[in-house]
Amino acid sequence: xxxxxxxxxxxxxxxxxxxxxxxxxxxxxxxxxxxxxxxxxxxxxxxxxxxxxxxxxxxxxxxxxxxxxxxxxxxxxxxxxxxxxxxxxxxxxxxxxxxxxxxxxxxxxxxxxxxxxxxxxxxxxxxxxxxxxxxxxxxxxxxxxxxxxxxxxxxxxxxxxxxxxxxxxxxxxxxxxxxxxxxxxxxxxxxxxxxxxxxxxxxxxxxxxxxxx
Length: 213
What we know:
By secondary structure, the chain is mostly helical.
């Protein structure tokens, strides 16, 4: 289709007018003979064609980190220039990375290990107050719930497309926008509702007499 420009060996698609630079679709022959591999862009193009032929999708969603925004934009533009009618039906959902998600020993680990570590940390925190700890039913389960909440709230507090640093200290805070504080606030509300069942469910705001407050 006349899209490829030979540039001293590598084959490129010039996307400068779309502010997407030059997309390499084939390496220089020298490098091809050395490694014999295709590259991401050509594999993605072939994969998209194959998926459409197999599934006839209404929409194809690519969940790829924001580090690859340029690559995905080049990939989408090349398919568009190749005039595939379904090229408009692809969507890129990008996301940031979690930095520093490791154990306290510094080893990079999987999420289930992070949950296990968070549970241990919360359990240790709970045991610092022996009286309150002894009053908790199922402290292991409670510490796991607190640990998972700490991880969730820290993750959901960040914008999806932004990188953020996983912070063990912040996860332990019982103040501010943290998991433990959210659990604590819920606990207080649950306690109020248990002690005042006659007040619940609350009437609509328009029916509440605020003069007596």
